[in-house]
Design goal:
The structure holds 2 protein chains of 2 kinds. Chain A is mainly alpha-helical. Chain A has helices at 3-15, 19-41, 46-49, 64-70, 74-105, 111-121, 130-139, 146-170, 174-182, 187-198, 200-216, 219-224, 233-236, 248-268, 270-282. Chain A is globular and about 75 Å long. Classes of the chains: A mainly alpha, B mainly alpha.
Chain lengths: 284, 285
């Protein structure tokens, strides 16, 4: 085959209307198989999880791993993850909402600089701040406490969440606020009565993003926690990772739990999360 | 009250909070990198000694090299696959929401878990992917991927990319979908085939999202240790040992936190440099 007809063939294949479906299906298998395999694996007995050749579907599905997981430290770390993520989200929203409102609708001298500083703080690698935070939390006696981790989590999420929420507020017409002011509303009153309710979707999306980022954080809890009473699920997954043996089936069950909140949010609130994330990202 | 005064007062608490949690630790980091600090002995100013100790360590240079290979690998794989996925999905009319949801789900998996899952799937003793490689005849025998320096690095890159592709995919898809359809029509009338229009319309017009995604991917993969930590912890030998893990090891092993701080400053500068080079290189093309 000559090279001309060969490249013609390639273009014909690319232009075929079934090709994108085929490509998408192949990619989907690549992307989804680890999650599906992890889910199946969590229903295997210990013997089957260690069998060679490995099975894809559990031959004798059992709930023994889930019993084992629930009798370990995992539920405790899961509780910690919930506490840490929810409190972080509430604090971040409480601070970010008024700040973003002011920066979006009532700019002042230096407000651009402040926004730039938030953005620049994202370039600082968190791992670099491990030492200063370690010293600060040690002095404040906050090592191995929920509060200490929450402080770190807010540092990681707050600056970029302000950017995302500001993006949502920017779309809100200033005229509406001004006409409310004419009607006797205060500037803060306009914020609570008009801006917040209309931007509810954006606020919810930002809350979900904060929750998920906090939920996924691993580096700081790994260094700053020693007890299971504080440690989140991202460190709890190592419960079944021993020096000699890794209990893959139990580990898979924990992995599913660790991924569950985000999976649920992605299935039910995908549109809003994506809107929030792309808004924050494209502002760069 | 003037509007600008109002804005200033409302933005003040949040800004102070962030300053306390970012600017202050940052200042502390720089100061620490020039002193000997260990909680017990008096603090001594040591000049650049901490930096010298970091740079004189052979492991630092290995880690630096690994970090660059790793970050570049993750960025390349993520960006290329993300663009391909976005291009494919943008041409799909049926089930596109369904496929989009499937393709972004890996994003839900925490990076540590991603490392562990891929470690399991490729495990020489129980791994399904390892078994598939053998039964498909691609390899003759069980491969111990985590015993081979190159394969271990490739695996870490794949596992990390796997969770980062969705973000790139979503950004680029949004970019592609904002391109007016008329442009493609016009190009087709002029005799351009799909490959031409992909190169001359799709890529240049979704450049902003591609650049943004690339920037985030390179910045994050340069500094994140989650996947490597759960997968190889730097091994075998030091073949996947990256700067972030080096820093954590310093923190655990050395009582003098000044040295660790110096490595922190070096990492900060390297990330800034690497990201700048990345942007410059991408913008020039």
């Amino acid at each position: 085959m000559s090279s001309a007809s060969k490249s013609n063939l390639i273009i014909r294949i690319i232009e075929n209307k079934f090709t994108p479906y085929l490509v998408t299906i192949i990619f989907s298998i690549f992307m989804i198989s680890p999650i599906i395999l992890m889910l199946f694996n969590s229903f295997k007995s210990a013997a089957e999880a260690f069998a060679w050749p490995p099975t894809i579907f559990p031959i004798n599905p059992t709930l023994e791993t889930y019993v084992r997981v629930f009798n370990s430290a995992v539920p405790l770390t899961m509780r910690n993850s919930v506490i840490l993520s929810i409190i972080t989200t509430l604090i971040v929203l409480a601070i970010a909402l008024p700040t973003a409102y002011a920066l979006s609708k009532y700019p002042f001298r230096g407000s651009k600089l402040i926004l730039l500083f938030y953005l620049a703080s994202r370039i600082v690698p968190p791992v670099s701040l491990l030492v200063p935070f370690y010293i600060m939390l040690s002095i404040l006696k906050l090592i191995d406490t929920h509060l200490g981790l929450i402080l770190v989590y807010t540092y990681i999420t707050l600056p970029i969440i302000i950017w995302i929420i500001k993006g949502f507020f920017d779309e809100f017409p200033k005229d509406l606020i001004d006409s409310a002011l004419v009607d006797g509303c205060t500037r803060l009153g306009a914020f609570f009565r008009i801006v917040l309710p209309t931007s509810a979707v954006g606020v919810a999306a930002s809350g979900i993003i904060t929750f998920l980022w906090s939920w996924n954080e691993f580096l700081f809890p790994m260094i700053f926690t020693t007890s299971n009473h504080v440690a989140p699920l991202t460190t709890g997954v190592f419960e079944f990772v021993g020096d000699e043996v890794i209990e893959w089936n139990s580990l898979s069950a924990v992995g599913i739990f660790a991924s569950l909140p985000a999976i649920i949010f992605f299935i039910f609130a995908q549109k809003y999360i994506i809107a929030g994330l792309t808004k924050g990202a494209l502002k760069l | 009250m003037k509007d600008s005064t109002f804005g200033f007062l409302v933005a003040l608490p949040g800004t102070l909070y962030i300053a306390a949690l970012v600017a202050f630790p940052l200042g502390l980091l720089f100061w620490l990198s020039f002193v000997r600090f260990d909680f017990y002995n008096p603090i001594v100013f040591v000049g650049l000694l901490n930096y010298v100790r970091v740079i004189e360590d052979r492991v630092f240079w290995i880690a630096l090299q690994n970090t660059i290979v790793y970050a570049t690998g993750v960025t390349l794989v993520t960006t290329c696959l993300g663009i391909l996925m976005a291009a494919a999905v943008s041409r799909i009319s049926r089930f596109s929401t369904f496929f989009r949801t499937l393709l972004i789900l890996p994003w839900a998996v925490p990076l540590v878990v991603s490392g562990l899952v891929w470690r399991w799937m490729l495990d020489p003793g129980v791994g399904i992917y390892n078994y598939l490689l053998i039964s498909s005849g691609l390899v003759g025998n069980v491969v111990n991927i985590f015993g081979d320096p190159t394969l271990a690095m490739i695996t870490c890159v794949i596992a990390d990319s796997w969770t980062r592709i969705p973000f790139t995919f979503i950004l680029v898809l949004a970019g592609i979908q904002s391109i007016p359809v008329d442009l493609y029509e016009a190009a087709r009338v002029d005799g351009a085939n799909m490959l031409h229009s992909f190169r001359n319309i799709t890529l240049p017009l979704s450049q902003k999202s591609i650049l943004t995604a690339t920037l985030f991917n390179s910045m994050f993969s340069f500094r994140t240790i989650d996947v490597i930590w759960s997968m190889t912890r730097g091994g075998p030998g030091k073949s996947t040992y990256v700067l972030g893990i080096d820093l954590v090891d310093y923190l655990i092993m050395y009582t003098n936190l000044g040295v660790t701080a110096a490595l922190g400053v070096i990492m900060l500068i390297l990330v800034a440099l690497y990201t700048t080079v990345m942007i410059y290189y991408l913008l020039r093309r």
